[in-house]
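Need tRNA (guanine-N(1)-)-methyltransferase's 3D structure for a figure. Predict it.
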Amino acid sequence: MMKVDVLTLFPEMMDGVFRSSILGKAQEKGIVSLNAVNFREYSSSKHGTVDDTPYGGGGGMVLKPEPIFAAVEDLLTRTSAPPRVILMCPQGETFTQRKAEELAQEEHLIFICGHYEGYDERIREHLVTDELSIGDYVLTGGELPAMVAIDSIVRLLPGVLGNETSAVTDSFSTGLLEYPHYTRPAEFRGWKVPDILLSGHHANIELWRREQALKRTLERRPDLLEKIELTDQDRKVLKRLRQEKQESGR
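Structure prediction for tRNA (guanine-N(1)-)-methyltransferase:
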């Protein structure tokens, strides 16, 4: 079972997400344990203080190291697996599908969610193993980014999704954007499902899906094509798609 702990000042923010949908079912199946920890409870101050003004002056408040270190060290007494301790912050490595796949191999993850101006630098230097950001923008706290990352990671665990191939063919898992999907009815308001998908010829369907994934990636995220290993057939398809795009003037 994977164990995920989230250090936060607002554990109630996690309740609905952790109990609902795929994450809730994953816990019911015993695949993952999700736990929100209020690190204010580890403050040595009688008032539960977890932040203070920055040395050197400046605006805002900075999270103190003592309560966060104490909370993580307490969690370590309850597990034998060395955890990845992840700081959610705008300065961190951009979270990607590859990172989700990497973290899904771990037994224990600890997410630290901050508020205020930032963290005491000693938390970064001596406690965390990873710093993650979900994008180049700033939020009021790390809780939403942590929930995004946890959802992305947990759905990759064996047995979480009903169809074990779903996560394998997701956008970004193959390096490409995912091909289009269709379901019943075969015709809706005059819009028909591509004939190839109704043919029952699985080899041709796979070729069509690969081509559609290449086409969608070329149109929407051409930068991704520079990062993946393409087959000779992929290159032929891309050459044809680029020619068609030039001829159409788009």
